[in-house]
Amino acid sequence: MFTGLVEATGQLSRRDRVGPDARLEILISGLGEPLALGESISVDGVCLTVQTIVDGGFACDASSETLARTTLGELTLPAKVNLERATPLGGRMGGHIVTGHVDGTGVLLEREPVGEMSKLTFGYPPNLARFIAEKGSICVNGVSLTVNGVGSDRFDVVIIPHTAAVTSLGILSPGGKVNLEVDVLARYILRAREVDSRAT
């Protein structure tokens, strides 16, 4: 489990195909204590497992499903990525509950300044519409954000200068694709309502 509070950024430096899958190599700095083999790490919002430690970073395997459903299979190398280690039991919950299971990809439609902050408007796939609510939480490329406004095919968020400086969202340009994970609580609440409605 993660919280959507990015700890550091890294550089996706290699993507070597292994049949339909791929081995990803990510260079890092400023992530704190050394990574351990087998630990989970969020890479742009995608939960991956540290397979090997390499000079200046780590490598992990990505399945064909992961490559198809997220941006990791198409990012132009080298690419800046957001990193977060799994939250330890009893750790601080500064964002919201994030699983690292991407629900789909979105695209940045517009970026505009709001004082010192930035308003980012994203388009999203229709199947996610019922999970995105104004003032609710959403994870964009591993970053926990609050939905400022929502429409039938788009939503917007406002990011503060700190978020722009320490995550890849600060350099994201219109047309750029992002990984989206909806609020897991919204998912379960809606699922429970669907089950209840069919039972009655």
**Helix fraction by DSSP (H/I, runs of at least 4):** 10-25%
State the end-to-end CA separation.
Answer: 34 Å
User: What is Rg?
Assistant: 17 Å
Helix tally equals 3
**CATH domain topology of the largest domain:** Elongation Factor Tu (Ef-tu), domain 3
Instruction: State the CATH architecture of the largest domain.
Output: Beta Barrel
Assign an overall shape.
Answer: globular
Features:
single chain; 200 residues; mainly beta; Elongation Factor Tu (Ef-tu), domain 3; 2 domains; seven-stranded antiparallel β-sheet
What does this structure look like?
This protein is mainly beta and 200 residues long. The protein has 2 domains: 8-85, Elongation Factor Tu (Ef-tu), domain 3 (Beta Barrel); 104-192, Elongation Factor Tu (Ef-tu), domain 3 (Beta Barrel). The protein has 3 helices and 14 strands. The chain starts with 7 loop residues before the first strand and ends with a helix. The model has no long low-confidence stretch (mean pLDDT 92).
What is the topology?
Layout: E1 8-18, E2 21-28, E3 40-43, E4 46-49, E5 52-54, E6 57-62, H1 64-69, E7 79-85, E8 104-114, E9 117-123, E10 137-140, E11 143-146, E12 149-150, E13 154-159, H2 161-166, E14 177-182, H3 184-199
Antiparallel strand pairs: 1-2, 1-7, 2-6, 3-4, 3-7, 5-6, 8-9, 8-14, 9-13, 10-11, 10-14, 12-13
Summarize the structure.
The protein has 3 helices and 14 strands. It has 200 residues and is mostly beta strands.
